[in-house]
Amino acid sequence: MSITTEKKIQWCPGCGNFGIYNAFKSVLEKNIDEGRLKKENIVILSGIGCYGYITNYYDINSFHATHGRIPPLATGIKLANPSLSVIAFVGDGDAYAEGMSHTIHAARRNTDIKLIVHDNGVYGLTTGQFTPTSPRGFKGRSTPFGNVENPINPITLMLVARATFVARGFCGDIKHLEYILERAIFHKGFSFVDILQPCVTFNDTYSFYRSRVYKLEDTDYRTDQYEKAILKSLEFDDRIPIGIFYEKEEESFEEAIRGTHNYFYERQVPDISEIVREMI
Amino acid sequence: MSVYKPLTGAQATAEAMRQINPDVVAAYPITPQTPIVEFFAEFVANGLVDTEMIPVESEHSALSCVVGAAAAGARAMCATSSQGLALMWEIVAATPGLRLPIVMPVVNRALSTPINIHCDHSDTMGTLTIGWVQIYSENAQEAYENVFLALKIAEHPDVLLPVMVMQDGFITGHGVENVKVLDDAVVKEFVGQRNPDRYLLDLEHPYTIGPLALPDFYYEVKRQQEEAIERAKEVYLRAGEELAKITGNTYPYFEEYKSDDAEAVIVILNSAAGTAKDAIDELRAEGRKVGLIKPKLFRPFPYKEYREVLKDKKVIGVLDRSISFGSYAPVYAEIRNALFELDHRPAMQSYIYGLGGRDIFKSEIKNVFEELLSGNVDSEKQKYIGLRG
Ligand SMILES: Cc1ncc(C[n+]2csc(CCOP(=O)(O)OP(=O)(O)O)c2C)c(N)n1
Ligand code: SF4
Ligand SMILES: [Mg+2]
Q1: Could you tell me the pTM of the whole model?
Q2: DSSP characters over B18-80
Q3: B52-81 residues touching A, CB cutoff 8 A
Q4: Which of A96, A130, A141 sits opposite B38 (nearest CB)?
Q5: pLDDT (tens digit per residue) in A68-80
Q6: Domain encompassing residue B74
C-alpha cells in the first residue's frame, strides 16, 4: 500500500530530507502490508522547518505543529490513546534549540513516542543560520566569521537523559536507515534517532559524512551496555559511528501512570441511539 | 550628509541599528524578521559596530538576554515576528514593569494557526494591553526613522519603557525602496549615550530588579507604569520635533492625508496606507471628498487628538489587518472609543482585510469609499474585504 500523497515535494533537489522520506516510507509501507502496523493507528507529527513539510507528503494522520513543541504534543497524543504509534519528525532547531528541554524530558519519562531528528546542522527554512549541532566555527548568515559556540552531542545527551533507544542514522545510507527506523518504531518506550542530514543549500555535508561514517552493526559493538554506549557516543571526529547505540526495555510513562488501561477505549460512551432516532 | 540607498525595510532597520551601535543585540531567526538580524550580523562581522551579538537558542532567551543586558546598563535591542513574539510573551509582559528602555523592531506576520508567514497584525495586536509603546510604520523610510524615535522615547527619564516599532512583513520588510539614510555622525549625536539612573553592576548603589510585590505594593507599581506610558504621549511629540530637525520629516500621532475637507475618511495602519493614498488620489481627481488617517503612535493611544480631527466627518471606515475574536477589531475599537464624547458622532464601519498576507487592492479601497459615501454602513457589523464566498 502506498502512503504517499499528491502533494509536490518542495525540498531543494539533492536535499537529505529525501533519503529520510524514502526510508520511512519503505518501512511504513512494508509493515502496513505485512500487518504489523495499522495505518489508521499511526500518527505522525512535525514542527516548523524545511523538514516539517514531510507530514504533507504521507497520507497518514498528522499534526503539523509549532516550532519546538513536538515532544509534549506527542506525549499528549500517546497518553490519550496508548494504542497509537506516535512518530514525531523534528528538526535540529526544534529538538536542540527552541525545544531542547522538551527533548530531554520526553527521554527521561520514557513515553512510548518516536523522535526522528533531521539533523542538518542548520536552520534550513530560515536560510542557513547555525544550530546547536553546527560545528564550532560554522559560517552562516548570522555568523559570517564563524560561530564561537560548542556543539552538543545529541547521542550522549539522550543517553544521559535515559532514553531507552538511542540511534544515529545517515540519510545517505537508506537501507541502514530503514533498519534503524524499523527498530525505533517497534521499540517499546522512547526512541530517539538522530539522522545526519546534509542540507545541500546551506550546509552540504555529504562528502564529510560519507568519508567518516561506519556502522556499529559491522563491528562487535553490543547495544545493551550503558557505560560503553556513552563512551562510544563521544566518538565524533575522523570516524563517526552510525547505528543503534543503546536499547533497553523499561516501563513506559503511560504504563507507569495507568498500567494496561486505555481510557480512550474504556471510557463510558453514552448511548445516543435513542436521541439519534428521535432526530431522524 | 544624508544619502539615498535602495534598501528593504529589514535592511533599513538594520541600518538604523548599525547607526545606533547598541551594546548588545540578541535574536533568534524567524521569517520575516530574519534579514534584520542577518544584515546586522554582517555589520558586526565587518567591525562596523561594537555590538556583542548573541544568536541565542529561542526568542524567550533572546528577550531575556536583552533584558539582562539592559538591566546591567547596556543599550540592548532585539527583533522578532509572529510566533517569535508569541514565544517571548512572558518576557514581553515582564519588561515594561522592569522599566527597561528596550527597542524591538517587529516585522508583522500572521500568528499560527494555520501556519502562515505573511503579513497581518495579529502578532503585535495581541500585546496591546501590557505596556509597550507601539509605533507603526508605512514604509522602509518610516521603519528606519521610527527606530531612532523609539530609542529617544524609551530612554527618556519620564518614560523608561520598552518600545516596539512595526513594519509589514514582506511588503515592507522585503520590498526595496529608496531610503534616505542619515549621516552616521548626525545619528550618533541624536541618540547620544544611554545614561541609566541605576543599573546592576553599579557597586556603589546596589539594587534589586524584579522582586516580589504582593497585594501590598504591586498595584502602586502598576499605576506608576501606567503614568509612565501616559507621559510617553508627550515625549513622543517632543522626540519627534527633535528628530524632525535632522530628517526634515514630521512625527505626529497620525498622518492626515487629504482628510481635512473629506466627508469619508478611512483609518488604516502600515503599508496598506500607501495603497489607500493612491486610491484617494484617483477619487479626488474625480472630485470625491475622501481622505485617510494613518495611525503612527498606537500605544499610548491619543484618543483626544483623534476625536478632534474626526468629529466633523460624515462617515469613517476603519480597516483592520487582524481580528479581535469576540469583540470589535483593535483599530476600530480605539477609533470608536475616541468618539464617545461627541454629541453627534460620525457614521462608522469596521472592515477586516488582508489576513495571512492576502493582498488588498486599490479597487477594493475605492469600493470601501463608495460604500461609505453611499451610507450603507452599520457601526455594529464588521465587513470583510477580499474574503472568498
Ligand atoms: C517560535 C518560533 N521562532 C522562530 C520560528 C522561525 N523558524 C521557522 S523554521 C526555523 C528553524 C528550522 O530549523 P530546523 O528545526 O533545524 O529545521 P530545518 O529547516 O533545518 O529542516 C525557525 C527558526 C518559528 N517558526 N517559531
Ligand atoms: S534548504 Fe537545505 S534542508 Fe531545506 S530543503 Fe533545501 S537542502 Fe533541504
Ligand atoms: Mg535543521
Answers
A1: 0.95
A2: HHH--SEEEE---TTTHHHHHHHHHHHHTTS---EEEE-SSHHHHHHHHHHHHHTT--EE--B
A3: 53, 55, 57-58
A4: A141
A5: 999 999 999 999 9
A6: 3-247
